[in-house]
Design brief:
By secondary structure, the protein is α+β, with helices and mostly antiparallel strands. Helices cover 32% and strands 21% of the residues. It is built from 7 helices and 6 strands. It has a 6-stranded antiparallel beta sheet. The protein is globular.
Length: 208
C-alpha cells in the first residue's frame, strides 16, 4: 500500500517516463543510439534557436558525435557539453541534476553489431524533495526493490562500493540498481540499467 506521503508526492509531481525512455536505448547499435541522442538535441535546439541563435549555433558545434566507438573501451560518455546535451538537460530534470550518462556497449561479435548493454547515470540528488530510491520507485514507475538472496548474482561487475547500500529492482530482462555516493559535491549517486540478455550474450564485457 502506498503511504500518505508517497501518495501526496505522486499527486503533486505525477508519473514520469524517464526510466522508460532510458530503457529504449538498451540493445541499440551505436548509430541508432546516436540518432536517438540527436533527436533529444534537436528538441533543445528548437527551443533555443528562436531566442538565442548564437547560443544555439555554439550548442550545435558541441553536439557532434564521435564517428565510432573506441576499440579499446566501447563506452560513450555523454555530458552537457557533447552529444548528450539534450539527454542530460531533460533527464530527471524535475528531481535530480544529471551530470553524465555513460552508454556501455557490448562490442560487435560474429554477425551482431555493437549493442548498448548497460547505461550508467551519474547524478546529484542532494536537492531532491524526497529520498532518491523513493522517487525512483514512485515517480519513475520502478517496482518494489528486490531483497537478493546470498547467492544473487548481479548482471555485471558494477563499480559499486561494498560498504554502501545498494538498491536493486527487477524489470524482467532489465536489472536496475541505485547506490548513493556520499560526501561528493557533484555526483551523489549512480543509477544503472542493464539488459541481462545482452550482458549474458556478450563475450567481451568492457571494464566498467
Amino acid at each position: 500500500m502506498i503511504s500518505a506521503v508517497l501518495l501526496a508526492l505522486l499527486v503533486q509531481f505525477g508519473i514520469r517516463d524517464d526510466v522508460v525512455e532510458l530503457r529504449r536505448y538498451l540493445g541499440m547499435p551505436y548509430r541508432s543510439a546516436i540518432q536517438a541522442l540527436d533527436a533529444k538535441n534537436q528538441i533543445l535546439l528548437r527551443n533555443t534557436e528562436p531566442l538565442a541563435p548564437a547560443q544555439a549555433a555554439e550548442m550545435r558545434a558541441h553536439m557532434q558525435a564521435p564517428a565510432s566507438l573506441p576499440q579499446d573501451r566501447p563506452i560513450l560518455s555523454t555530458r552537457i557539453d557533447n552529444i548528450g546535451q539534450g539527454l542530460v538537460t531533460f533527464l530527471f530534470e524535475d528531481d535530480f541534476i544529471t551530470e553524465q550518462v555513460n552508454f556501455v556497449f557490448c562490442p560487435a561479435q560474429q554477425e551482431k553489431p555493437e549493442r548498448v548493454m548497460a547505461i550508467q547515470v551519474l547524478l546529484d540528488d542532494s536537492r531532491a524533495v524526497s529520498d532518491a530510491v523513493r522517487l525512483l520507485q514512485i515517480i519513475y514507475q520502478l517496482p518494489p526493490p528486490v531483497i537478493p538472496a546470498p547467492t544473487y548474482k548481479l548482471a555485471l561487475m558494477y563499480p559499486v562500493r561494498p560498504n554502501l547500500p545498494l538498491t536493486i529492482w527487477n524489470m524482467g530482462t532489465v536489472e536496475v540498481i541505485y547506490q548513493p555516493i556520499p560526501e561528493q559535491k557533484l555526483i551523489t549517486g549512480q543509477f544503472w540499467l542493464t539488459d541481462r540478455t545482452v550482458a549474458a550474450d556478450c563475450m567481451a564485457i568492457p571494464k566498467l
